């Protein structure tokens, strides 16, 4: 399994897929640097006048609703329609779903138009999309990933996609298979935008691997291992960001084998 992960990482680095991100203002720089470090090419195009054309060039489309505005929602819908027509995988991040009616309804509207290849969120967001009565504080999860397993399975079957529930232990399902990713470090949630970075990395791996669940598993494992490597050198959240980007850039097969891949 580690060899399969390494093969996907090598493909990302060799093929340098373009990952089109319609994402939020908070994380654009972080996301772009992470994609570059892992070997992909990031682009952040939000204008409705160009998103269809830009999406058509991409290997994957990442939709992140973190900082919503009406014109961005229109651009997201247009980009998702183009991705569906071109067979381009879509990774959807329902940032803060459940926090406000507008935010949650936007998710329902977009997902109702075009089903993604992967939905990635924290437990509260995933439960909110599934219709659970769950309290959330912005993008913070008030539930553990395993508490959202039923909700994740429901979404996986509803949209015929893979679902990633991020947490101390990440849960990944597609309605038939289930994986856990135990890599990571408690310092990671202290860095703004690492969850959004995970979504972007899933996009990069989906661009080179047509099996959405496997691609997501590989991306989340890389994310967790690089978090561990970065935390070992970091003095706090500030230096954690720098060391994380370096870890993505320098990650090799030996490090992957040393940190392991959970077989479950």
Automatic annotation (TrEMBL):
Its EC number is 2.7.1.50. Pathway: Cofactor biosynthesis; thiamine diphosphate biosynthesis; 4-methyl-5-(2-phosphoethyl)-thiazole from 5-(2-hydroxyethyl)-4-methylthiazole: step 1/1. Substrate binds at residues 44, 193. It comes from Trichloromonas acetexigens. Catalyzes the phosphorylation of the hydroxyl group of 4-methyl-5-beta-hydroxyethylthiazole (THZ). The keyword Glycoprotein does not apply. The gene is thiM. Belongs to the Thz kinase family. One of its GO terms (biological process) is thiamine diphosphate biosynthetic process. Keywords: ATP-binding, Kinase, Magnesium, Metal-binding, Nucleotide-binding, Thiamine biosynthesis, Transferase. It holds the Pfam family HK. This is Hydroxyethylthiazole kinase.
